[in-house]
Amino acid sequence: MGAGVGMIALTRAVVRKRRALRQMIYGEIYPADVCERMHAGKVARIAAQLRAHAGDKPVSLRKKAAPHQVPKGGDLRRRDDKIDISDLTAIIDIDPVARTCTAESGVTFVDLVAATLRHGLVPIVVPELKTITVGGAVSGCSIESMSFRYGGFHDTCLEYEVITASGERVTCTPDNDQSLLFQMIHGSFGTLGILAKLKFRLVPAQPFVHVGYEHHTTLSDYQASIRRHFDAQDVDFMDGIIHAPDRLVLCIGKFVAEAPYTHRYDWTRVYYQSTAERIDDYLATPDYLFRYDRGVTNVHPKSWIGRLLVGKLMGSQQVLRLADNLNFLFKSDKPTVILDVFLPFSKAPEFLAWWERELGFFPLWCVPYKRVRDYEWLDESFYSSLQDPLFLDLAIYGMEQKDERNVHRMIEEKLRELGGMKTLISHNYYSRDEFWSIWNKPNYDRVKQETDPRNLFRDLYSKTCRAAMGLPG
Ligand SMILES: Cc1cc2nc3c(=O)[nH]c(=O)nc-3n(C[C@H](O)[C@H](O)[C@H](O)COP(=O)(O)OP(=O)(O)OC[C@H]3O[C@@H](n4cnc5c(N)ncnc54)[C@H](O)[C@@H]3O)c2cc1C
User: Which of 134, 148, 220, 458 is most buried as measured by Cβ atoms within 10 A of its Cβ?
Assistant: First the structure.
């Protein structure tokens, strides 16, 4: 009898493993109701971990994919108890008619794009690194070259399932009684609850992308062209590389059904460098979406011979996993600058003049970002005098700090002066009062009180500006 039960359990485990393997290899999707049942089991296991967590020691998440946070040597979160969410990796449903997808939060964009392309669709905003997850994209503010039309990935989401610190399962949408939670979860860095499942929109895609490169010599011409494409909405994708103050390239892409040739940028070729040399290019759609996977402007390995030898093996997942494991090497009071700044479009000339004068680091990645709505997570004062319909996201990757100045802090101060803000994935030096004059404390506190009154996930300031920096409190 005992042996029989053992055999049944073993057979079930083998079947489960084979299914998981098939799903991994073929992206196979089970009927939605089966997926939903499996998902409910995973949520129950996560809720049980949260309920079992006694005391007030903070917790952090353990995902399957490597985190896309700038590694920091003294990060206190490494010592947190972990809530394991690593099995939240299933695509539950793709509805090609409604053009929506429902997926667990740990699904990576590379898997998602592979699955949706089979239906001739893609997610609307696909962050350029392959293993950014849909949950991480919402929690940590992901953007990309469709942002000039749609904003952030979160702006394309329709519904979230959130697990609160007490293990409660809450569904929020922009219109239900949890609408504030829906709006606040974006950019909350896991401090308001665990995103378990997301429903988001998809758009029709073609097999290839034709990218044209406009070469400008002045910022005013560059901005005029961005503004023209934004007003006309005549392209599918728009981003750019500012190679130097007088070498600004705008990359405008369109889906196409056929291509006379295609290029890939996942071995010796470097995408951002190609934008300085070419006038146009064709890429297969997944290769376009992940064209920066070897690093946007901070490509590894840096030398051609290094890329020839190991470049194929060093995608973002491998580099970030290595950096995460070797985090102790990044302990420094002068950390390399890797961050995104969001500027009102009209303030870009002032920021870039200051940048060139004070720091002069180029290239910068440039992503126009539509002001889709006035976000609840920013303080009302942020929008009160803002007229611009567009932001410009400028990404600084891999700038070494060479003198006594703290470049992160200089940027924070300049952004305050110009009415901009930055994402919190990097090193943050804000004081508590300053931070909460930019982020919206009343809205944050209202939701926090509902979803995490014990402060198990830390609050947003403590997590991103204290614990991440190795500071208590
Ligand atoms: C070197 C580098 C390059 C980058 N390049 C790009 C780029 O090209 N385009 C772009 O858009 N962005 C880029 N980013 C930023 C990236 O989009 C964000 O950091 C994003 O949050 C990463 O998602 P992730 O899935 O890796 O999540 P993580 O990095 O693992 O997590 C981000 C935060 O979200 C929280 N979180 C993760 N999953 C969940 C969940 N299920 N529920 C609740 N909270 C959760 C984590 O606790 C953490 O605080 C880059 C970041 C780095 C460090």
Answer: 134
